[in-house]
DNA sequence: CACGGAAGAG
DNA sequence: CTCTTCCGTG
């Protein structure tokens, strides 16, 4: 019950992101955190959706890094290190870079959702598995075994 | 800035 | 495994 996070032009179903309130569970993941900031309008001066669907720009890299550092208890976090973590997402197909545009990345939503919330998603859709309305292409390979 | 190898933490 | 830290390269 977190109201419809309306990050402006983009909105996702609740199951599209992690209920960070997992009691002592595993740590929050960076892309969950990014999505979280993107949902809140009060951070639009720091990070916001811009351009194509799923594309966002980090308007204030230092601030996003600072916020991430606080969340992970890493006081020395900075954009250089945060962006390295973001780069690891390229191979995982969670994100990719919008080349030419500074501080701009793009989510591969169809992939992110399918890979991370397969069953959860199915349930939310009422039993029928289908491609989400925003997802263009389906996956075509297994990422766990090359 | 952006990229990705390497080593290391938890 | 998911980053965090450090760093050479373009």
Q: Could you walk me through the main structural features you see in this protein, from its secondary elements to its overall organization?
A:
This protein is α+β, with helices and mostly antiparallel strands. The protein has a single domain (2-124), classed as Winged helix-like DNA-binding domain superfamily/Winged helix DNA-binding domain (Arc Repressor Mutant, subunit A, Orthogonal Bundle), CATH 1.10.10.10. It is 35% helix and 10% strand. It is built from 5 helices and 4 strands. The chain has helices spanning 30-39, 61-72, 79-92, 109-116, 118-124, and strands at 47-49, 55-58, 95-97, 104-107. Strands 1-2-4-3 form a 4-stranded antiparallel β-sheet. A hairpin with a 6-residue loop joins strand 3 (95-97) and strand 4. The longest helix is centred in the middle third of the chain and has 14 residues, at 79-92. The radius of gyration is 15 Å and the shape is globular. The structure holds a DNA duplex (10 and 10 nucleotides).
Supply the key terms.
disordered N terminus; 146 residues; 4 strands; alpha+beta; globular; DNA-binding; Arc Repressor Mutant, subunit A
* Percentage of residues in DSSP E strands: 5-15%
Average pLDDT, to the nearest integer? 74
Please count the helical segments. 5
The CATH first-level class comes to Mainly Alpha
**Annotated CATH architecture:** Orthogonal Bundle
CATH topology term: Arc Repressor Mutant, subunit A
Radius of gyration: 15 Å
Main location: nucleus
GO molecular function: DNA-binding transcription factor activity, RNA polymerase II-specific; sequence-specific DNA binding
Family: Belongs to the ETS family.
Protein name: ETS domain-containing protein
């Amino acid at each position: 019950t977190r109201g419809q996070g309306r990050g402006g032009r983009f909105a996702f179903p609740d199951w599209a992101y992690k209920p960070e309130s997992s009691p002592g569970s595993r740590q929050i993941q960076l892309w969950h955190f990014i999505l979280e900031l993107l949902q809140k309008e009060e951070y639009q001066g720091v990070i916001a959706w811009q351009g194509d669907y799923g594309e966002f720009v980090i308007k204030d890299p230092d601030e996003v890094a600072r916020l991430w550092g606080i969340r992970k208890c890493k006081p020395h976090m900075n954009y250089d290190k945060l962006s390295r973590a973001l780069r690891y997402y390229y191979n995982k197909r969670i994100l990719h870079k919008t080349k030419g545009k500074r501080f701009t990345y793009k989510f591969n939503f169809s992939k992110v959702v399918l890979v991370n919330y397969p069953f959860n998603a199915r349930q939310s859709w009422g039993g029928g598995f289908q491609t989400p309305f925003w997802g263009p292409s389906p996956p075509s390979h297994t990422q766990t075994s090359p």
